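Summary for the funding panel

The consortium committed to producing paired sequence-structure records for every protein in the target list. Below we show the first two records in order, beginning with the earlier of the two.
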Amino acid sequence: MFTGIVAAMGRIEKVTPLGAQDAGVRLTITAGGLDLSDVELGDSIAIQGACMTVIQKTPESFDVDVSRESLNRTVGLGEAGTGVNLEKALRAHDRLGGHLVSGHVDGLGVVSKFEPVGESHELRIVAPKEIGKYLAYKGSVTVNGVSLTVNAVTDRPDGSEFSINLIPHTVEVTTLSALKAGSRVNLEIDLIARYVERMMSAS
């Protein structure tokens, strides 16, 4: 479990295929400012919003294995040199600064607008229909591992476009600063919305 509060920006230093072309890869990630001193083998770290298991580590880097299924359903995890948002798993006594995030990417969105508005930035993303129904005004959504608040939602034939205001600090300390119109992003819907739908639809 995570909070969506990015602790550091890392970088994918190496991508090693695990076997045949349709197999997964092993990523070696430089941790940036992420403190790895309390990370053990088998611990979880969210990378661009996707929960991965640490299989090797040094004081400055760690390795994870990413399945082909995960590569097919996420963006930003398969290319060396890519910057990534990092967050260690939530501990029971930690502050919940964002919202409850599972680290399971529900789908991919496409940035329709990312532009400065005054001192902040407006980020608009088109989510697929199956995700759009979970988006609500002032609700929570995770974009590339960052917990954000939805400012507006507009349903469209091709999905739902939602708008987010990014303060300068968020742009500065996350990989969201590299987004542009047409960029694809990892989306995770609010955990509570998922359970509400299940309760309402169960017979």
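The next record, for a separate protein in the list, is shown here:
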Amino acid sequence: MFTGIITGVGRIAAVHDLGSSAQHGKRLDIDAPAGWLDDVGLGDSIAINGACMTVTAFDAKANRFCIEISAESLDKTAGLAETGAVNLEKALRAQDRLGGHIVAGHVDGVGTVTLFAPVGESRELRVAVPRPLSKYLAYKGSVAVNGVSLTVNSVVDTPEASEISINLIAHTVEHTALHALKPGSRVNLEIDLIARYVERMLKART
């Protein structure tokens, strides 16, 4: 489990094929901030742009770790098959503060940035969300975008999809990889876990 509070911005330094067919996944070499891996061990869970992955190798002195990502996960996520900056979060400990919201690290869908523009000292982020996820999004509700816990400011529904608007304070922009977003960027989305259970319970009553 995670909270959506990013503790480091890393970089996918290299992408290696695990096989020659489309059914094979990739191995990623990821550079982390200095000292970030000091309390990490083999098998630990780390959310990379919101997707929970398992550490398969690491070198704390070199600030680098490796993960293996399946073809299925690559197909259901964005930004994990090429080099570039990524948001990093270690798994939640029982005694940690829940600063964001409960995040499972399971990507529910991929959205597309439609606007990323300055608004005063902040930035407005708009994301087109796949229609199947629209019902889980609500005004002042929570959503994880590339692993970052964010608050939805508005939801506009259309027949094809929904568009959410989010306000990003300067601190969030500066301390996550969201600063690199632009219209057309694809982002990983995870809906609020509580909304998922509410839907299930309501269906069970009918």
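Regarding this second record: The chain has two domains: 8-90, 109-205. The mean pLDDT is 95.
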